[in-house]
Specification:
479 residues; alpha/beta; TIM Barrel; globular; carbohydrate metabolism; cellulose degradation; GH_1_N_CS; polysaccharide degradation
Length: 479
Amino acid sequence: MTMTTTRGTLPSLLTEGRAVFPDGFVWGAATASYQIEGAARDDGRGPSVWDTFSRTPGAVAQGHTGDVACDHYHRYAEDVRLMSELGLAAYRFSVAWPRIRPDGSGPVNPRGMDFYDRLVDELAAAGITPYVTLYHWDLPQALEDRGGWTARDTAYRFADYAAAVHARLGDRVRHWTTLNEPWVQAFLGYGSGVHAPGRRDAAASLVAAHHFLLAHGLAAQALREAGAPEIMLVVNTAPVLTPAQIADPAAEPDEADAEAADRVDCLLTRQILDPVLLGTYPATVLEIVERHAGLSHVHDDDLRTIHQPIELVGVNYYSPCVVRSSPGEPANPAYPGSEGIAFPAVEVPVTAMDWPVVPEALSRHLLRLSHDYPGAGLMVTENGAAFDDVVTAGEGAEHVHDDDRTAYLDSHLRAVHAALEGGADVRGYLVWSLLDNFEWAEGYARRFGIVHVDFATQRRLPKDSALWFREVAGRNGLA
C-alpha cells in the first residue's frame, strides 16, 4: 500500500540475508494502561491527568478520550489469548496509578489491584512473562491538583505506590520498570503543553524532570528492598543528528551544528541518563536549569538517591532527533535552552506521524548507549510505526496488508542485530504496539498496532505485520 504521508518509499528489506538473534533474546509487545484499558470509572478508579486533558477543548484530536479505548479491562483474557497465538514471550504493560490509589495516596483500592492480579495470572497460564511498568503518564488528577510533578512530594507518593504494587504482584513479577519516558511528560506535559497536564512553563518542565528522576530513585530503592530482581528505567532517548548526518552517516557536522547537536543531546539523553547511571548532571543542563528555574529544587542528597543500581535501560525508539544551528531561532518549548537551534524536516520516508524513518540511527544509538553507560543492559521496549491501515476483504476473510509497517519493523530489527554484532548489550525487542489504541493527543486517528482494533465493535484482527512478527519471534531471527 502506498502512503500519501511519506516523502519517499519505504525500502523492502524482507528478502535480505538471515539475521539470527542470541539465545534468550526476548520477543514481545508493549501497551500502556490509559491507551488500552478503558473502564475509566469502573471499580473505584479515580481520574488521571489524561482524563482531564482529553476533555480540554482542542487538546486531543476529534475530542477523543480513553474512556473506552480497547476495553482491555474487560477483554484482557481475549487479548492474552491473542498474544499466545502470536507467539509472544513477553508482555510489557503499565499499571494505572489511579486504579490503585485513586487520590494518589491513601489506602489501596482492592478492586483496582485485583485487575492486575488477574492479568498477571492469565499471562502466567499462557506462559507469557509480564514486564510491569509502574508509570506511563496517567498521574492521578488529585496529585496534579497539589502540584503534580512540580511538587517534590509526588516523588515520595510514587515510591509508596510502587511498594504497594510490588507487595501484591512481586511474587509473580520479576521485571519492574519505574517510569516510562520521563522526558516526554516533563517537557511535553509541562513545557510545550501538548500532552497532559497541558502546562506551558519552561521552569516547571525542568523542575518536573528532576522530580521524575527522584521518583525513579526512590521507587528503585523501595523495589530493591522488597526483593525485586530486575529494575529498569524506560527512556525515549534518540540520536541527535544533523541533516548532513542523515544524508551521510559518516559526515562530520560543522562547529555550529555540532554544538547544537550536543546541547540537544544533553537535554534529551544526558539530562535523564547521566544522573541515573553516572550520578551527575551535565554542566550544560545545570546551566540551563539554573537560568530558567534555579536549583533550589535539587537537594544535596538527590543525586545519590537517583543513582541506584538498575539492571536494564529500556529504549523506546521511533526516529532520530534532527537539529541544525539557526541563529535567532527561539527555543523549542519542549527543549528549554535550545535558543538558536532549528529542528528541520529531512528528505527521507516518514510514517503517518510524519516521523522520519532512519533505522540505521537505532544501531548508532544502541552502540552509543552501551559505550557511554556500560553498567546496564539494554532492551528495545518500544519500536513501531503508525500508518494509515486499510481493512480489505478477500479469500473469505478480512485482512490488513500493512507492508509499510512490516518493512519498518524488519529494517529496525536488522538495525538491532547490527548493534548486537557491534557489541551492544541488547536483551530483547518489544514491538509497539500490540493493539491499535488511544494515541495520546492524536486520539484514535493514528494506528501503531500489529493488531487492528475496530473501536466500534472492539473486534481484534491481526495485521500481516503481526503474522510476520510471529514468524520472526518463532525462529529467533530474520529470514
